[in-house]
Amino acid sequence: MVRRFYYIAFLMAAVTIAGCGGNQSKTAGPPATPKAPELMKPFRYHKMIEVSPGQTYDVFSWGRGSQEAGAFMILHSDSSAIKYTTTTGDLDGQITDVYNSDMDVDGNPEILIAVKSKDTINRTGIYAYEFNNESKANKLDFPKLNSSQRKGYRGDDNFYIRDGKLIREFLIYKGSGKDATSTGAKRQLEYGLSRNEFTVKQLSKDSVDVAPKGTTANAAPKKQDDKPATKKSEKKSSSKSSKKKKHKRHHSD
């Protein structure tokens, strides 16, 4: 009986192994692309930025309830010095992306968090921090658009880093509210940093008004000059008077 029991157990094990091998051969193929792990609530967003070996910044947004409000935190890991710091702040909107730069080229990285607010024009704001060698975070005030930069602005900004500077682009609209229409032109701004303050420079030459066909958007309409017309009329009158004089002389002869 004992031998028979071991024999049956051996057969069952062999069948199980053969079945597993058959399943593997049937499902053989390219490995599936691993999915990004889903964040557990209350976390909504995460991006890791490695500035240099051992210097890592993990940016999170979190909050329960409303999706348009919450908070963010920047976890700085300095594994070489074994220092770990946390920077937090209130959040108005949803994080769309996080950028890293050194705009003032001082060796201290800046972490720029782009946040889109769900208002009438889908406005995008920037939460900016500069981290020094002591891992301390210095909050930077991102400038608002002035009157000329805001003209024709309807949100949906596009941010990116180019040559160490933060570039901002957005379409220009004509009109307001639901009747606003795109002119097809874009406004492009470049942000730098000097003494912990942002500098702004407009790179593009744009116009809010749609240019007529065959002209450029910035071409100013030519003004009619009255002087040439006056000179022509003077020439005509002088020629008529000279003809009259010649006619009188000929008649007297």
List the helices and strands and how they pair.
Layout: H1 2-26, E1 43-52, E2 55-62, E3 69-78, E4 83-92, E5 94-101, E6 110-116, E7 124-131, E8 137-140, H2 147-150, E9 158-162, E10 165-174, E11 181-194, E12 197-202, H3 226-252
Structure report:
It is a single chain. The protein has 253 residues and is of the alpha+beta class. It has a domain at 43-202: Beta Barrel (Lipocalin). It has 3 helices and 12 strands. It has a 4-stranded antiparallel beta sheet, with no helix packed on it. A 4-stranded antiparallel beta sheet has the order 5-6-7-8, with no helix packed on it. A 4-stranded antiparallel beta sheet has the order 9-10-11-12, with no helix packed on it. A hairpin with a 5-residue loop joins strand 7 (124-131) and strand 8 (137-140). The longest helix has 27 residues, at 226-252. It starts with a helix and ends with a helix. 13% of the residues are buried.
Question: How would you briefly describe this protein structure?
Answer:
With 253 residues, the protein is α+β, with helices and mostly antiparallel strands. It contains 3 helices and 12 strands. It has a 4-stranded antiparallel β-sheet, with no helix packed on it.
